[in-house]
Write a structure and sequence with these properties.
Pathway: Pyrimidine metabolism; UMP biosynthesis via de novo pathway; (S)-dihydroorotate from bicarbonate: step 2/3. Belongs to the aspartate/ornithine carbamoyltransferase superfamily. ATCase family. Pfam families: OTCace, OTCace_N. Keywords: Pyrimidine biosynthesis, Transferase. The chain is of the alpha/beta class. About 40% of the residues lie in helices and about 15% in strands. About 40% of the residues are buried. The chain binds phosphoric acid mono(formamide)ester (CP). Phosphoric acid mono(formamide)ester binds next to α2.
């Protein structure tokens, strides 16, 4: 495979190969082996048109641990600010013989367009509301660490499903791996029919009766709200957020909590969630490096 653009185009076997390879990569860190020579002599270019903390730094660390050379393309300082087209940018990068391009852009489908323009392997690091495949892979890896056979386990994804590339990619990967997925959120932010007719709740208590094993909280994306945001942020926390009282119930039931970050404290969750013993939020960040190493290791740029 040359590129990783979404989860939908991966079959279960490919997903499992990527997840399995991440296990020894993660084990290397625990043995304090910081680098392997797998991508020595290869170049990785980070092309982020949108901000990122986790995905960007995680890809950079992953590429360096594979001994690749990493260049951070600074969009703000580039000729993009003078109106250079994506095509021209990519052709310029192609002339520099870049082997891998990691791209984040607000437009759905743009990484796919870039992939068709270049011999480099392109990894989608998030495109609009379309896909975030490496987030999905690290989410699946994190769940599999807790449930080695996750078949039939239930994951409730809570929040702004409509604008969320994470919800789209993560629910797709979990379904492919045999888990059950449901959505919970305000009617205006949860599509009536999700992928594969995923069950949809608009009431927290009703959703809890479904008895999830994992509660996956999404970030409320203030920057993508093109519909009237209803309810208000304070109401959202009351209706759908993990409040102190709900955290107590979650603790008693022994449920895991996940969140892709960045977290809006006091919106999706209360501060106490960050110290909750079954919060997997830091595990997700840590696992992101091993999973992204696995992705880079498996992709094959065209010669
Ligand atoms: N989860 C995620 O994509 O976070 P960043 O926006 O910080 O990369």
């Amino acid at each position: 495979r040359k590129d990783l653009l979404d989860i939908a185009s991966l079959d279960r076997e490919e997903i499992e190969v990527l997840l399995d390879q991440a296990v020894p990569f993660k084990e290397l860190f625990t043995r304090s082996v910081k680098k392997v020579p797998a991508l020595k002599g290869k170049s990785v270019l980070m092309l982020f048109y949108e901000p990122s903390t986790r995905t960007h730094s995680s890809f950079e660390v992953a590429a360096k641990r594979l001994s690749a050379d990493v260049t951070n393309f600074d969009v703000a300082q580039s000729s993009i600010t003078k109106g250079e087209s994506v095509r021209e940018t990519v052709e310029t990068l192609q002339s520099m013989r870049t082997d891998y391009i990691i791209v984040r852009h607000k437009s759905s489908g743009l990484p796919g367009t870039i992939a068709r323009l270049t011999k480099a392997s392109v990894v989608n690091a998030g495109d609009g509301a379309h896909a975030h495949p490496t987030q999905a892979l690290l989410d699946a890896f994190t769940i599999k660490e807790k449930f080695p056979d996750p078949t039939g386990k239930k994951v409730l994804i809570v929040g702004d499903i409509l604008h969320s590339r994470v919800a789209r990619s993560t629910s797709t990967i979990l379904k492919k791996l045999g888990l059950q997925v449901s959505y919970l959120g305000p009617g205006s932010l949860v599509p009536r029919l999700g992928p594969e007719n995923i069950q949809r709740f608009t009431n927290y208590e009703e959703a809890m009766k479904w008895q999830p094993d994992v509660v996956y909280l999404l970030r409320v994306q203030m920057e993508r709200q093109d519909v009237q945001f209803f309810p208000s942020i304070r109401e959202y926390h009351k209706l759908y957020g993990v409040t102190d009282a709900r955290l107590e119930e979650i603790r008693q039931r022994g449920l895991y909590i996940m969140h892709p970050g960045p977290v809006n404290r006091g919106v999706e969750l209360c501060d106490a969630v960050l110290d909750y013993e079954r919060s997997l939020i830091n595990d997700q960040v840590e696992n992101g490096i091993a999973v992204r190493m696995s992705v880079l290791y498996h992709l094959r740029p065209n010669a």
